[in-house]
Amino acid sequence: MRISRRSFGLLAGSTAASLAASSSWAESVATGGTGPLETFVPCRAITKGPQQHWFGYYDKREFDPTNTLVLSNEVGFEGRSPTGDDQINVGYVDTKSDDQWVPIGTSRAWGWQQGCMLQWIGDDGKQILWNDREGDSFVCRIYSTETKQTRTIGMPIYTVAPNGKFGLSADFRRIDNLRPGYGYDGLADPNVNRRAPDDSGIWRVDLETGESTLILSLADVAEIAWPDGDKHADAWHYFNHLLVSPDSERFIVLHRYRPEFDPQTLQFKGGFVTRMLTADVDGSDRYVIDPSGYTSHFIWNGNDAVTMWTRPAGMKNGFYDLTDKTDQVRPIGQDKMPTNGHNTYLPAPYQDWILNDTYPDRKTSRQTVYLYHVPSGRRYDLGHFPSPKAYRGEWRCDTHPRSSNDGKLVAIDSPHDGGRQVYLLDVAEILAKHG
User: Fold this and answer.
1) pTM of the complete model beyond 0.70
2) What is the enclosing helix (H) or strand (E) of 221?
3) Please, which of 30, 108, 141, 155 could form a disulfide with 133 given CB 3.0 to 4.6 Å?
4) What value does the mean pLDDT take over residues 139-153?
5) What is the tens place of the pLDDT at every residue in 171-193?
6) How many CB atoms lie within 10 A of CB 210?
7) CA distances (Å), origin 279, targets 245, 247, 282
8) Do you find a cis peptide bond into 156, omega within 30 degrees of 0?
9) What are phi and psi of 274, to 5 degrees?
10) Alpha carbons 46 and 411: distance in angstroms, whole number
11) Which among 343, 372, 377, 346 has a CA at the least distance from the CA of 359?
12) pLDDT at 33
């Protein structure tokens, strides 16, 4: 019998899976050898156990227009990879009603890092989107806060355009094979034996009609030579991490490949290589904005530039501002933001502020959430949040800081108090004093 990559991982990691269902998991969290919790702004939990809660990725809209309804996922276990049969609840916390949990649906298409792509659509607070599985397909659910009804679109969504009219989809089956923890388990990739298929890639999806169009294929980008002139035709290509520009005219995608992958066992060796591309939302006017091979976390800085963690040719690792369709590169805050993190800009009128975090410190195992004021070069730590060492690998709990629409609140995910929960940090005083 053939054992899938994920099934193999679950069997090999049965100890971790057992921890999740026993008191040993709680003990491993409690005795994680972390430093103390320290917060420097008002901070409170808005979710609570026994269920675990988290939002997921840092570049998605979690707050409604009133900044009082905060989206979250809910799950009953920790410490192992999800399977295609594991279902989570999706809903929101009503912070104006004693943090009441309001469920709106469920999902069987999710991962620990990005959840099920749960997010608000557009600016009016009338629709919420997330991914799910229906039969032999991954789909998208769209919930109306007015009618309380849910409709289904036949393609999963990776990112939503700021104008709320369309989303971009990627092949989560392929991502699951080549980047465990970011795709969805449960459905086989029909292109598992193909290195750069021409029918897999990025689709533009109309969020009203559900109509989808393949706008960029893996075969398309595999034909674009890398800086060494090689097209790496013998590598295994995939897309990850999409984000549409604020004006909804262009998008970013990370084109990645793995040199070695066995489609029979779904096992790979070594790491992946990355380059960042931008393109118009119809897939045209493509540009390799970062060919370095090291692109990591990023965010649009206006409509014409991208701020990212990378290592441009001849430069050190750090955050840089790269201008789209040019070779302009500018370092950003490298003395105050020296390590990789999940970076975003606060909304107007605070768009000169970067919201960021760190991975767990090696000595104290704490994650730091902070604000960095670009014009002045000042950094303000918001808190140091212990991350027990049981939270590592695929089921780690990054803080992934997300801003409210007015910039005055920050939501994070953190496991520092006995489980994965969502916390709110109030940064209004910092912005008032130093903005």
Assistant:
1) yes
2) helix 218-222
3) 108
4) 98
5) 999 999 999 999 999 999 999 99
6) 15
7) 10, 13, 8
8) no
9) -125, 140
10) 9
11) 343
12) 77
